[in-house]
Amino acid sequence: MLPRSMRVILAALAALSLAALACAPDRRGAGARHAHYFGDVSPPRGQVFRYNNGAEPESWDPGLCSGQPDGRVARALFEGLAVPNPRTLQPEPGMAERWTVSDDGLVYTFRVRSGTTWSDGTPFTAEDFRWSWLRVLRPGSGARYASLLYPIRNAEAFHRGALADEAAVGVAAPDDTTLVVTLESPTPYFVFLTMFYTYCPVPRHVVERYGNRWTRPEHVVSNGAFILAAWRQGDRFEFVRNPRYWDAAHVRLERIVAYSVDDLNTSANLYKAGVIDWTTSGAFPSQFVPYLRAFRDYQHGLYQGTYFYSFNVSEPPLDNVWLRRALSLAVDREAIARDLLKGSRAPWGNLCPTGYPGYVHPPGHRFDPDSARACLARAGYPGGRGVPKLSLLFNTSEDHRRIAEAIQAMWRRELNVEVELSNQEWGSYLQATTALEYQIARRAWIGDYLDPNTFLSCFVTGDGNNRTGWSDAVYDRLVREAARTLDPARRLAILAEAEARLLDQAPIIPIYHYSTNDLVKPYVRGIWPTALDTHPLKHVWIDHDWRMRAAGAAANGAALGEAR
Amino acid sequence: MTAYVVRRVLLMVPTLLAIATLTFFMMRLAPGGPFMAEREIPGPALEQLRRTYGLDRPLHEQYLRFLANAARGDFGPSYRYQGRPVSEIIAEGFVVSAELGGWALLVAVLLGVPIGVIAALRQNTAVDFGVMAAALAGVSVPNFVLGPALVLTLSLGLFWFPPALWEGPASRVLPVLTLATAYVAYVARLTRAGMLEVLRQDFIRTARAKGLPERTVVFKHGLRLGVLPVVSYLGPAAARIIMGSIVVESIFAIPGLGRYLVQGAFNRDYTLVLGVVLFYAAFLMVLNLLVDLAYTRLDPRVELS
Questions:
Q1: What is the CATH number of domain B96-258?
Q2: What's any GO biological process attached to this entry (chain B) (predicted)?
């Protein structure tokens, strides 16, 4: 028999756990499951959308922030001149109802909607754009993506402090509804750029009043489809519909909860339990992909990013182009994508990813062991004799290690070349690649806008993102020439020539094409896979009748996926 | 007594200073910096960021300025999270971690001590062996195994509790259980050992000889000394448990303090790391002092000097 005090304690604990059970939210249980979907498929009550936004954002000031989680919050709150179509990402009128371009492609005139206001009722004018863009460009702004505004005349000089007069920067607001932007050179993708969050307007009256705390929920004022109702550090954002948004009539969601969950397993659990309706791309362990592929709520699309190995060409032996070519020809990309990545990524031999209308890719790097050995002999190392031991750097990650080990084995097998693997944590890895303190390094690039220039401009001489030491006059000239070319087809042809030149000189070797992998519940409408993984939330809504629709669609013999 | 406390508090100052100095310089030895990114920050923006945060000053100057501010409890702004002072990040995270840890600690004591006492009273019986085997298992199963196992069965299988997040009483159950289990087991083992030691002593025999009921002997006289090992263990354990478990907070997506130490170091968020380390150190020292004070209450033989 237990002593009385102990019985009391045990009874209390039992009562506590029962109480906790009683407080448990109304779990819908196994009845809400469906064989074709991963986990619970009962929609939330009302027009409420819940998703995992990923890592805790560093900032959601649209002018200053960077990265996908930060960008998703900024895009929910703020809207630029144009907004992306949720399927194609092509620009549609946003805060600007229309725009015109001068014949020389240098002057863009945007007609800003009249009669619109910020979420606090303050009138919205074209001047808000001018002020916000100059704020990003001010040398002291610390904006991570300020260089995205460089196509604007004198923007770069102003940002670098070489030019002090802000009136010389090519943006003017002659009246409340007109914004005139003058560019350095014709930039056919400029309207596309204005959809990036760095180009979004910020409320001057709030920014000036609250300084760097202006984005707090108690202060922030926005102009997009949603306003920020609450934020808890490391936990969640809550957005509600902005009744003053110009297109509020077409926004169906009442509320959005964006959780900041960075653990991928936890994210998958929350989705399976029906706590969240969308994982966002990559927000579950990549090993799940082969299993999840069988479910209808798994969405897969090509993402505008390339995974590649980069050579430090500034010192021997990798200053030898034949050695670089040999190493690339000995990489079996198909095998990596098939066996290691289980088809979650596509093998890719080009720098620029796919998905640019009108862009014809030059032939990419391929796997050809015989040519690889021939190149190695031309490099002066017949049969791999005399190649010093090389070092391959990657940032610490199980996936990167597996790929590195596979490539290490391929080079040993095909070329008799030895590499040692070296992994460093993120900060040290960035330092090493930036300072060219490496021989071969794993790297990746994700495009900012839908144009090959977002990839090719990285590798011009001296660009901060080049990080290979590669400098090629032919390549630089081609990229510069494309920037001056008005004819769209001609411009893309020149860019393709530049990519061909880069692939021929091989300062980098492409390995795979990124893809988006997300889980989205069948009752969620308006989320499509897109090349930039951007999803304007104003188009999202919860379809409470999805089962009926699905049944109807099935009866009509139509594919289930077409409803969204 | 007061003099003792004052002396102990004063002794914390050089310790904290040493910890602050070591952390400060070790952080700076790590390659890279807070503003290094996969995508280059343009030169002028980078310079301005470094100026804003005082990183352009000589290192000794930065160090002295940091000490002067830290002495006032101001650790400066986080380098990573724009517009968020480190002290605010710590305060917000600590509230959550402390709640989680507080519950776990409570469960550890409320379950661990009785289990230990039962095992001691039934020494070398099936009850004792059974309880101690369970305790051994509890200590041995790491929480990164226990947590997902609990989620898989009780949440995704039986739908009793949410799988993660920190909202409502039900969301507390699984993380508290995950965090507490190892401590329950450890407290039970310590209590058992302490009780066995105490129950063999002369004053217990005297108490029994006086004709006191067994309950009084065990709980009034025995337990008081028997839990001493638990008390000295609880000081540092409480600091560890309350400051946040990175693993449990990550598995259950709890917005606590645990993650900021590790992520701060990866991000080279100098101010955040220094703030969390110093806060943790001070907290640990205060708890140790409290443990020593508690000793004098529980064991009349202990005197503070």
A1: 1.10.3720.10
A2: transmembrane transport
Residue contact A58–B83, C-beta within 8 A: no
Residues β-bridged to residue A232: A236
Please name which of A358, A355, A347, A372 lies closest in space to residue A492, comparing C-alpha atoms.
Answer: A358
B163 and A272: CB-CB below 8 Å? yes
* Distance from C-alpha of B24 to C-alpha of B66, rounded to nearest angstrom: 9
- ipTM given for this complex: 0.87
Confidence at residue B204, expressed as pLDDT on a 0 to 100 scale: 85
Are the C-beta atoms of residues A516 and A355 closer than 8 Å to each other? no
Distance from C-alpha of A475 to C-alpha of A467, rounded to nearest angstrom: 16
C-alpha A270/C-alpha A521 separation (Å) is: 12
Picking from B82, B252, B254 by the largest number of A CB atoms within 10 A of its own CB, the best residue to mutate is B82
CB pairs under 8 A between A and B: 174
pLDDT, tens digit, 9 for 90 and up, residues B98-157? 999 999 999 999 999 999 999 998 888 998 999 889 888 888 888 899 999 999 999 998
Per residue in A134-146, pLDDT tens?
A: 999 998 788 888 8
Mutate which: A13, A156, A269, A428, vs B, most B CBs within 10 A:
A269
In 3-state terms chain A splits into helix, strand, coil percentages (rounded to 5) of 35, 20, 45
* Domain-ending residue, one of A241, A259, A293: A241
Q: Are residues A482 and A394 in the same domain?
A: yes
Identify the segments of chain A with pLDDT beneath 70. Answer: 1-33, 554-564
Q: Could you count the other beta carbons within 10 Å of the beta carbon of residue A286?
A: 15
- Kindly list the domain boundaries of chain B, sorted by start residue: 96-258
- DSSP string for residues in B50-74: HHHTTTTS-HHHHHHHHHHHHHTT-
Highest mean pLDDT among A312-321, B199-208, B278-287: A312-321
Residues B79, A261, A454, A96, CA torsion sign: negative
Residue A269 to residue B164, Cβ atoms within 8 A: yes
